Amino acid sequence: MGDTGAAEAALFAALGATFPQGRPERVAVAVSGGGDSMALLALMAEMPGWQVHAVTVDHGLRAEAAAEAALVARFCAAHGLPHSVLRWDHGGAPKGNLMEAARLARLSLIGEWARGQGIAHVALGHTAQDQAETLLLGLSRAAGLDGLSGMRANWQDGGITWLRPLLAFSREDLRQVLLRRGIDWAEDPSNANDRFLRVRIRKALEPLAALGISAEMLAQSAAALAQSRAALDRMTDAAAQSVMVQRAGALCLNRDAVAGTDPEILRRLLRRAVLWLTCARHAPRAEALQRLVAALKAGQAATLGGVRLVPALTGLWLCREVRSLGPAVAPGMLWDGRWQVQGPFAPGDQVAALGAAGLAQLADWRSMGLPRAVLLATPAIWRQGQLVAAPLAGNFPEWQAEVVPACHAFNIAH
Known about the structure:
Layout: H1 2-17, E1 26-30, H2 35-45, E2 51-58, H3 65-79, E3 83-87, H4 98-117, E4 121-123, H5 128-140, E5 154-157, E6 160-163, H6 171-181, H7 197-210, H8 215-243, E7 244-247, E8 250-253, H9 255-259, H10 263-278, H11 286-298, E9 302-304, E10 307-312, E11 315-320, E12 339-342, E13 350-353, H12 355-359, H13 372-376, E14 379-383, E15 386-389, E16 400-403
Parallel strand pairs: 1-2, 1-4, 2-3, 4-6
Antiparallel strand pairs: 5-6, 7-8, 8-11, 9-10, 10-11, 12-16, 13-14, 14-15
Family: Belongs to the tRNA(Ile)-lysidine synthase family.
Main location: cytoplasm
Keywords: ATP-binding, Cytoplasm, Ligase, Nucleotide-binding, tRNA processing
């Protein structure tokens, strides 16, 4: 009994420590119906004063999904918890990495739902086994520090704080939570399908445990590596403040400061810059990123993943590559996934790249003190094919354009 009490106390302490700045008014739990997420929901429902909302994503990829959502619904009804079911309209089985596509769809759907509900925190039921599997996946791909740091305990994306409060606990710990409470859960048959690499790695954990390499030990190693990664991230933050400035949605790096920056910090800085500029979900491959680092240190032009490196007298500029920019959008919509434009729009106006045709109509663009490549990739307002305004490339006081924090956070000097 004492061991059971201590185990439960540790679980509740982990939940309480998830919010070091104070408990939010409401928090959502992503619940598939599996044992891990059902245990998380049950534990969070017992936290005094917490307003817990359950949300389930039905991917429509398995016949059992509806029954699993119904299982969650029954639990929520019995405990007076609000529960929403979201469905993924994928138009048939997606091509490529099915598990990755489903994961991204789940996060996107839940994030959109949470924003609509005014919920800023979403908890996920990942465990030490998930952490160990992620570490082994990284090893299978010869990953560096970032790939071996495991799952993040928390992160922010799209205005939502995502939380994994139970990464230090095993699946067995969570199954015991359910058994003690008499709570049912579902077993996903895809978790036994050797078609998926993660499943094969999961099965490899058993013989590793026989050698003394348990999932909990691997999770601890991932946590230690994550601390090292966090230290490097802090150093990268400091470098961003001293090495670069943001202007017109582009990044300008000081040549002398670049020369004195540690190579690893410079690599991390450039990777973060590419993600910030493109809103891409995945960082560029290590080899391609290293080529960009070499070009930067040599002061040479280069491109990578929709980003241009442009040497200029004012510094080394990173900006969007025009041919990779997003299509024209209607007023009020984000252009290129990150630009918000405001002004006296007329019916039929569109926001699109200034481009060479637009820049040619601005006689004084050089007075802005920005490289031509930077200005080409800035937003402009077009009306029936005619340039109306270019807020960052000329004198258009009625119009404003700014980068909104819709993608990757980046603490840059202005």
